[in-house]
Request: fold
Amino acid sequence: MQSNGKKYRISCLGPEGSYSELAATKMCEDAEIVLCHTFPDAVHKLLAHETDYAVLPVENSLNGGVLECLDLLEEENIFAIEEFPLAVDHRLATLTGVRPDEVNRIYSHDQALMQCTDFLNKNYPNATLVRTSATAESLEKLDAHSAGIVGAHVVREGVVLSKENIADHKGNFTRFLLVEERGALPKSSSMVFFSAVCCDGDRPGALLGLLKIFLRYSLNLTRIESRPVKEQFGRYRFFIEFAGDLSNERVGRALHEAERYCAQFKLLGAYN
Reply:
């Protein structure tokens, strides 16, 4: 995102050293980063006009969708305007002088713990795994018998990082979205993101009917993910992304047909 000389404020999940902070700084190098305790807090600061934008992770290449953030996109008055894939490089963090055989607790965000399962099972099979709200929060928990999983970009005095990436798969990316308060739609895009609940969702072929709309307009669906509709057991909301320009007539007609077809429909973002 171009700053155009303006000092933007961007809210994201903290604390300092989180992957969300790293993504925010890469998306807008000159921005003032406002670190928050939770993803909802980051969005609420945006909607309270305390920040200009918020950064949310929505998908990891190993674990799929970040469900809490997908729900925020659906439930809050926000719209995604830019995406950024961030390479994830997990390192084991300990205090200086702590030996591996002294570690019996390992702290990190649940996504990081899941992404390092093979390493943890092999090297720390008896360690207690403790979830934190962000990877960087584990740095505050370190003591003589604990370790944390943080990003390779973290630098803190008295903390030693493993020399190698400890993730099960090294080609690990998390996709972040830059969101703003919902307003006028962008004039152009290369990707469009929406959510939908099909009419008669328990009828055979209900989802197929929705997908066929985009087939008729030769639009390439790049992602589809389902989430249960809250308080409606057995019904599902589909998060769908496709390649398309909002200024293109075919895209507009497809979205219009999809909205008419669905019981619930929301355009969540459009970006390049």
About this structure: The mean pLDDT is 92.
